[in-house]
Amino acid sequence: MENIDYEDNGFFHSGHVACAGCSEPVAVRVILNAIGEDAIGVVSPSCSAMICGGFPMSTVKVPMFHTTLESAAASASGVKRALIARKKPETTVFCFVGDGGTYDIGLQALSSAAERNEDILYICFDNEGYMNTGGQKSSSTPLGAATGSTPSGKTTRKKNVIEMLAAHRIPYVATASPSHLNDLRAKIDKAKRIRGTKVIIVLIPCLPGWGVADDGAVRTARKAVDAGVFPLFEIEDGVSYRINAGRKDASERIEGYLEEQQRYRHLDARQVAELQAEIDFQWDRLRQRAAAPERGGLTGARAGEPPSCAGPSAGSVPAGAAAVPGAARGCGPRPG
Ligand SMILES: Cc1ncc(C[n+]2csc(CCOP(=O)(O)OP(=O)(O)O)c2C)c(N)n1
Ligand code: SF4
Ligand SMILES: [Mg+2]
User: Fold this and answer.
1) How far is CA 197 from each of CA 107, 233, 278, 291, 331, rounded to the nearest angstrom?
2) Alpha carbon of 170 to ligand 3 centroid (Å)
């Protein structure tokens, strides 16, 4: 693991109940440290909810609102708008949600919040399955991976939620990994400075769910990045791509990544080659997009400042929020 040169602010206490060796708690610690004290979190049923602590226990120093699996983004939207109404627009509202709560069950709420460009920081801990409930397949589970509900391997690809979010043209979408903590922290710092909907998807290798050794979580996450399976990148305004870390050269193969996990052990050579071809395709596509950034459709569109809109859009501005610059333009609530 890389050294991280920061002073811990103590927003994450001891006593969490994650599996020993899970990398999610260290990601949570870095994220909370970067978000700071003036924050309210919304957490859906997931490993994150257990890590943050079930009421009345808490490992997190900031207030956490435990919501339903479907509604993290909607709940966060409400919390943010309430803060705006109470003249506290600068408070960061963030979500901790699993991939089941993001790619499947909460996707409607997330899409709606993104369409309204709500000023929330949405963090998805993507362990590629419903792990808190024993390891069932989600639509984030990759092709070929065995889960409790796909014992012979999943027959369809991982849903590309990142591209779906980019298609909403929200100001910031990024991927992150517990193997690259400085990158994770930098992305939280950056997202905090941006008004509007920010989504960061953090890969979390699940020890029991993926069949990873107790000391293998961070190593597996790093191999996912290095093999191009889970490259680290950012998309600003849905069009501007930047790769932060990924496959170092074209000879980098996925076998080393697959070997860390039991969920792929049933694959034969032909299936591994198919996975490699899919990774090659996705990696080349990403590099092309990063090399030739598209231009935003509206003049002046840039990260952190959603384009000014033609006029107010009825229904998108909550009562009392008109005093907030930007809200009256129908671009979603923004602090003054
Ligand atoms: C609508 C609904 N269906 C099912 C559940 C039961 N449930 C609680 S946590 C969970 C798993 C969530 O998976 P994910 O969001 O990926 O988080 P993880 O546990 O993997 O961290 C499920 C299915 C629920 N709470 N609500
Ligand atoms: S079930 Fe998986 S993701 Fe959840 S705490 Fe355990 S190792 Fe971490
Ligand atoms: Mg999950």
Assistant:
1) 14, 17, 30, 25, 11
2) 23
**Alpha carbons 2 and 334: distance in angstroms, whole number:** 35
Query: What is the end-to-end Cα distance of the chain in Å, rounded?
Result: 39
- Mutation test of ligand 2: which of 206, 214, 260 has the most ligand atoms closer than 8 Å to its C-beta? 206
Strands 172-176 and 232-236: antiparallel
Task: Classify 104 as helix, strand or coil.
Answer: helix
Question: What's the chain's average pLDDT?
Answer: 89
Indicate if the pLDDT at residue 328 is higher than 50.
no
Is residue 55 helix, strand or coil? coil
Give ligand 1 pocket residues (Cβ under 6 A).
45-48, 69-70, 98-101, 105, 125, 127, 129-133, 138
pTM: 0.90
C-alpha to C-alpha distances, 178 to 1, 142, 216, 259, 292, nearest whole angstrom: 9, 19, 12, 19, 29
Q: Which atom of ligand 1 is nearest to the CA of 48?
A: 21
Amino acid, res. 228: G
User: Which value, in Å, is the radius of gyration of the alpha carbons in the chain?
Assistant: 19
Q: How far is CA 320 from the centre of its chain?
A: 30
